[in-house]
Write a structure and sequence with these properties.
heterodimer, A: ABC transporter involved in vitamin B12 uptake, BtuC, 12 helices, 3% strand, B: Rossmann fold, Rossmann fold, seven-stranded mixed sheet, globular
């Protein structure tokens, strides 16, 4: 029984971080209709910012949220404005030019990171990195709990922003029908820039929160892009609630798989769910939640 | 118009080819395949640095009978298919005289296959799956011991000092990890230890707690782990979080001997032991100097990976010096006749057991004692007394 509870706890905690990675991608997906395949690489950039802050200026990783999130917002907005938006205007045989562009951006970011930091593994060591609270026999990793808390907080904030503010409503309007939104007087190209920025800032937060637990090297992004992709499909394209549930489902499923099937099949469990969702629930959890 | 372009291309290609041949006159080209990007890049970089350092020294000391040794380092990105294509490129386009390097078992196995097909001598220095030298390939030579021998020093330590009853084995599910685990499983059965759990995992995971929880439930006497570097430190960190306390944590080389393991795992790395293939205090000529030079130049310490690459470069230089010509058969004859001393120990390629052209190298046991990697086994080479038994909870500061 202890094993089962410990597994579920680990799964939910890691799922919180997955959710944050997924939300950013799903937001971009919803508004722009493209999968951002540089998502994990943007997270990698945020992690390097955290590393530099901690290593050279001795700033606590959680405080670097204040630096990494705005920085990545600007980087994301810059990418959208100067690299992706111009592509919409270009006629081409492939409608997915922007997706290909994000792949390229991801590679460039990875190689720049390798150029500056080399391929060394970096970590940020904190006094609480591997501290744990025990409730009964179940261990709760402190940084994971903090990360989970932050994930809830940012999600709530995002919801409030999307539901209550003008800008948030404009984003939702653009996501639903960008032509109609334009007719209503919304500057949709500005909205895409802001959305990409917010998406990047959210994945930056996930990266920063991951930093005390995990490690960092230039090629770390790809694996997380893949995770985000699975979560986005699982949750339903463009659905924020779906991304949250999808992230946690993926975390718990991986954890259960690792305990009861075998750690080597952990990734497989995630992809089996991915395939099952595509077959039996195309459209993802969005079909159930309707948000 | 089109014709003109084609002719121009041909002329251009010929000129390029000629200039290449002219440039190569003063040097002898050796291809080195290493993963310098991708998730194994860390190891590839260490070996590349060691290769380049040895190359400079060899060329400063006169090179290969007056010719310069030119290393063409190609990136395998840690993927077998890329490894195959870069080796093909080295053989057909760059016309190298032999191939060296070879990190990661899966990639090395794939590249070795290409070399064998093309009758190209390949000196492997790190890829360690047994089948690289048990496939009956005649053009493949290996400097490092095969993975099945990695634990031989650990075995004697286990039977003589720790005497465990139960063992848990965790390994990454790569060729290196799976084969090493299988072999250790067999060894345990032979020595009469009960293997209570044997579990593979995917490299690069964040959360190892599910599997560690299961290990804890079985309460084994020793936990044997075959992991690359960051998995190794996460495993130890999370074992600490879960208060998993066997009699001893043992690493099967790879990640556990790297300086980064200590830096990342912190206090959780203390007193962990690992199999290793090399330590700078070993009585091999130049071992300590190599360690110091590497540290001074690259500002990081070096473990057996660097020593293997450095020694391999000297073996390559030695072989090329002794070869009658740079024809593949002459180089092969020189490789067969190799009998030299390197920083990695004596090197001689022989056929034993199922192995072909395999160097016999000894293995050792190291222990992290207060942030330093000390050689603890075999006793005659030990720099510090083997610390045992250990109260883990006290070490971890609970």
């Amino acid at each position: 029984m202890d094993v089962f509870i410990q597994t579920i706890v680990s799964g939910i905690l890691i799922g919180g971080i997955y959710s944050m990675i997924g939300i950013g991608m799903t937001l971009i997906m919803g508004v722009m209709g493209i999968i951002n395949l540089a998502h994990g690489q943007l997270m990698m950039v945020a992690m390097y910012i955290t590393f530099v802050m901690a290593h050279f200026f001795h700033v606590d990783p959680y405080l670097s949220l204040l630096v990494a999130m705005p920085a990545l917002f600007l980087l994301g907005a810059f990418i959208q404005k100067t690299l992706l938006n111009p592509l919409i205007k270009v006629e081409s045989i492939l409608p997915e030019n922007q997706v290909l562009m994000t792949v390229g951006i991801g590679m460039v970011l990875t190689e720049i990171a390798r150029f500056i930091f080399s391929s060394d593994y970096k970590t940020v060591k904190t006094s609480y990195s591997s501290s744990a609270i025990f409730i009964g026999k179940i261990s709760f990793n402190v940084p994971m709990c903090i990360a989970f808390g932050f994930a809830l907080f940012f999600t709530a904030l995002l919801f409030w922003f999307l539901l209550k503010t003008d800008l948030g409503r404009s984003i939702r309007a653009t996501a639903q029908d960008s032509e109609a939104a334009t007719l209503m007087g919304i500057n949709s190209s500005r909205i895409t820039v802001i959305t990409f920025g917010i998406g990047s800032a959210l994945v930056a937060a996930a990266g920063v929160l991951l930093m005390p637990i995990f490690y960092l090297f230039p090629d770390i992004g790809g694996a997380f892009t893949l995770k985000a992709f699975v979560i986005t499909i699982l949750g339903g394209l463009g659905s924020t609630v779906g991304a949250i549930v999808g992230g946690i489902v993926l975390g718990v499923a991986e954890s259960l798989g690792a305990t009861y099937i075998g750690m080597g099949y952990k990734e497989m469990v995630g992809f089996v769910i991915f395939v099952l969702v595509l077959i039996f629930l195309p459209g993802g959890l969005k079909r159930l939640t309707k948000i | 118009m089109k014709k003109a372009t084609v002719i121009f291309c041909i002329v251009f290609a010929i000129t390029l080819g000629l200039s290449g041949a002219v440039m190569a006159k003063g040097s002898v080209k050796v291809g080195i395949v290493l993963p310098t990007t991708g998730s194994l890049a860390k190891f590839g970089e260490i070996e590349r640095d060691a290769f380049l350092m040895a190359q400079e020294e060899i060329n400063a000391a006169g090179g290969i009978n007056g010719l310069k040794l030119e290393l063409l380092i190609e990136d395998t990105t840690g993927r077998p298919e890329v490894g195959r294509s870069v080796v093909e490129k080295l053989i057909t386009k760059d016309k190298v005289v032999m191939i060296g390097g070879g990190y990661s078992s899966s990639v090395t196995y794939a590249t070795a296959g290409v070399c064998q097909q093309n009758n190209m001598p390949f000196l492997v220095n790190t890829g360690s799956a047994d089948k690289i030298t048990t496939s009956g390939w005649t053009w493949i030579y290996r400097l490092n011991p095969p993975v099945s021998k990695y634990a031989s020093a650990v075995e004697s330590l286990l039977t003589q000092v720790i005497k465990p009853k139960t063992v848990a084995i965790l390994h990454e599910n790569s060729l290196f990890g799976t084969k090493g685990a299988k072999k250790f499983d067999k060894t345990c059965k032979k020595l009469g230890f009960k293997v209570v759990l044997k579990e593979g995992y995917e490299h690069g995971g964040i959360d190892f707690k599910p599997v560690l929880t299961r290990v804890k439930q079985k309460n084994p006497d020793i936990v044997y782990m075959i992991s690359y570097i960051m998995d190794a430190s996460l495993l130890m960190k999370q074992a600490k979080e879960l208060k998993l306390t066997p009699k001893m944590f043992i690493g099967g080389a790879a990640g556990f001997t790297m300086p980064e393991f200590k830096e990342n795992a912190g206090v959780a790395s203390n007193y962990v032991i690992s199999a290793t293939l090399w330590h700078q205090v070993l009585p091999f000529p130049g071992a300590m100097e190599f360690y110091k030079k590497f540290k001074a130049r690259f500002n990081k310490s070096v473990d057996y990976h660097g020593a293997e690459a450095y020694a391999a470069c000297y073996v390559i230089a030695d072989v090329l010096k002794r070869a009658k010509s740079f024809k593949n058969t002459d180089i092969k004859a020189a490789l067969d006749a190799t009998d030299m001393m390197t920083v990695f120990g004596p090197v001689k390629f022989t056929t034993w057991g199922k192995m072909k052209n395999q160097n016999k190298a000894a293995t050792y046991v190291v222990q992290w004692i207060d942030g330093k990697l000390e050689l603890v086994w075999p006793k005659e080479h030990a720099t510090k007394q083997f610390q045992y038994p250990i109260d883990w909870l006290k070490v971890w500061g609970y």
